[in-house]
Amino acid sequence: MRDDAVAGGVAVKGTVVEAADFIRDYLTPLGGQALRSEVVRAAKNEGYNDSTTKRAATKLKLGSVASGQGAKRMWVLPSGS
Fold it and tell me: What is the total count of domains within the chain?
């Protein structure tokens, strides 16, 4: 595991596994789904960069569905997660 780096005063966490764990923990109490933009924002606040967050979402096999709020997308945990 690599040490956290600091970018702009925010600790940057680098592993996809850590980011995937964060996303799963974030989505689970929300019924397994949330707006993609909210998940990305929360991950960024925890120090995960956008590309790590996207790779983590792919690793988790998150679904991406229309939210019914314009062009906004929901990330959804797969069944059994």
Answer: 1
Could you tell me the residue range of the domain that residue 68 belongs to? Answer: 5-76
Q: For the segment 3-23, what is each residue's pLDDT rounded down to a tens digit?
A: 455 555 445 556 899 999 999
Long-range pairs of 14-19 with CB within 8 A, sequence gap ≥ 24: 14/52, 15/52, 16/52, 16/55, 16/56, 16/59, 17/56, 17/59, 18/48, 19/43, 19/48, 19/52, 19/53, 19/55, 19/56
Q: Is the residue at 23 inside a domain?
A: yes
Residue-wise pLDDT tens digits, 22-32: 999 999 999 99
